[in-house]
Every structure is written in C-alpha cells, then in structure tokens.
Amino acid sequence: MSESNRSNFKLDTDLLSLRSLIAVVEEGGFSAAARRVGRTQSAISLQIAKLEDRLGAKLLERTSRSVSVTPAGEIFLSYARRILELSDEAFLAVSAPEEKTLLRVGFAEYLAPRHLPNLLATFRRAHPNCELSLVLGMGVDLFPSMDEGKLDLVFAGPEADNGTLLWEEELVWTGAGEGGPESNSDEVGEPLDLVLMHPPCSYRKIAFDSLTKAGKPWKMSIEANSVQAVQSAIRAGLGISVLPHSSVAEDLSFLSGETLPALPNTAVMSYERPDQTHPYAQRFIDFLMASVES
C-alpha cells in the first residue's frame, strides 16, 4: 500500500466491507455473499472495489463463473478476520457486564449430538452473560422461525443456500444391538423393517435409495415425529434406521458389514440471520466445532 493510500485508509469505517469480503470468499461468489450479509450483489461488489482501490491491491480475481483469492487477498483476509474478532470481543467486553444477552439457537433434531445438553451447560458456564434458548425441530420449520426473527442461529443440513459448512457428519445404520440388521426377520431376503422420521426428512430418501440400489428389500415399520421416538422404536426391536454418527444413543449399535450398503456423509451447516450479527453467535459456532473435533 502506498503512503498516500495508507493515510487515506480509515479501517474504522470499513467493518461492513470486511464482512462482505469474507462472505464472498467463504460463500464462493457475490450472489451467495449478498444473501448472507443481507445486501444487494451490486452493493457488495462496490464495497470490495472501493476496498481494493483504497488498499491499492487486488484482493479477488473474478470470472463469469468463479471468484478466487489473490495472494494479497489471502494476506489481507487473515487480518480482516482478526479485526472482526477483536471488534466483537471489544463489544462484548463493554456490553457484557451491563446486561445479559439471549442467544436463540435452532438445531435440526437429527443433527443434534447426543451430548448436546452437556455442551450447552459447558457453554453457559463459560459465558455467564449469554442466556441460551434451544429449539429442536425439522430444518423446514426452523428456517421460517429465523426469518420471523424468533431464532438467531440455526444448525441444519444443506437445506438452504445461505449457510456456512461447518463439518461433514458420517451417516450410519443403527439397530437395537447384537444380531445385525436381519435380526428382525426370520428368512434371508425378507424386507428390512425401517424406522424413520416422517417427510420431509432427507434421510428417508437416502435410506430408500441406498437399499434399492443395493437390491435390498425394505418396508416401513415405524414413521416417527422425533429422533427420540425413532431411537425408542429401535430399542424395542421394531427396525433399523439411518442416523448421524454423533446422534446415535450409547445403548444402540452401529450396523456394518456386507449386509447393508454404504451411506454418504451429510453436511452440517450454520445459518445466521442476514439482518444482524449476534455477538455470541460465532463464539457458539466455534465452541460447537471444537467439541466435535475433540
């Protein structure tokens, strides 16, 4: 950056531009970034163009199909993320002692890890000024609640186009215990009993398609309206199901081997309200990811 550009670069007025730049890079394009930050695509483009002009450096390479980060952009991005983190911390350092903040989190029930209650308790102890409100449900129900301003943060699958990929979760076949998936049938080739959530649960189609492709006959045994009901039916020996690895209860078994087809991974995404950034949202996301990686 030239001396003249440096003297004219007032970073305190450009936090929104930094958020827009990070959104473009993480979302892979201007259209998705615009939805994420709640601005128009042209406004995002203008913000970044002005930022590049003031820096005297090109941050992004744009083509009609893709956006890539330049070497200068990679360097600047690391600083931009640190600046925003410090900005959020500064806000919390001043505001936290005065009043508590409510963070309303929605979690797609199928993706909720079995140790989620313990995680919430740990987060509350670490952040006493953040009051947590948790809603479990189907992603299709959680998104309208966030649109209505009733939720600040949603964790769900790739059911909308404005989420951020956090990690990929292994899908597994699960059953009641020893005996394998054929334990609920007396004859080889008899249809497998399935216990699944009601539509529009995406794991239904994954289970149906994988078994059909493998030539395994199946039939619906139980159609439940909650993961707890699914796992209760499995415990009773009423069938097998498809669940994310981290949500399988400890008293249930993972079914594997040649008798059942392999399953794809599923994506765990975070979704934030585009009209505002909650001061504790990123902290909760980081905390959740750290617990998954540990």
Task: Tell me the overall shape.
Answer: globular
CATH architecture of the largest domain: 3-Layer(aba) Sandwich
Instruction: Indicate the mean pLDDT.
Output: 82
Unreliable residue runs: 1-9, 179-187
**The top level CATH class name of the largest domain:** Alpha Beta
Give the ordered list of helices and strands. Answer: HHHHEEHEHEHEEEHEHEEEH
Q: How many helices? A: 10
Q: Tell me the count of domains.
A: 2
Structural class: alpha/beta
Strand content: 15-25%
- Give the number of DSSP strands: 11
Percent of residues in helical segments? 40-55%
Distance between the terminal alpha carbons, to the nearest Å? 41 Å
Oligomer state equals: single chain
Largest sheet: 7 strands, mixed
The radius of gyration over CA amounts to 23 Å
CATH topology of the largest domain: D-Maltodextrin-Binding Protein, domain 2
Keywords:
Arc Repressor Mutant, subunit A; alpha/beta; 2 domains; two-stranded antiparallel ribbon; D-Maltodextrin-Binding Protein, domain 2; 294 residues; disordered N terminus; 11 strands; seven-stranded mixed sheet
Element layout with pairings:
Blueprint: H1 3-8, H2 15-27, H3 30-37, H4 41-55, E1 60-62, E2 67-69, H5 71-95, E3 101-108, H6 116-126, E4 130-137, H7 139-147, E5 153-156, E6 164-175, E7 192-197, H8 202-213, E8 218-224, H9 227-235, E9 241-244, E10 253-255, E11 265-272, H10 281-293
Helix pairs in contact: 2-3, 2-4, 2-5, 3-4
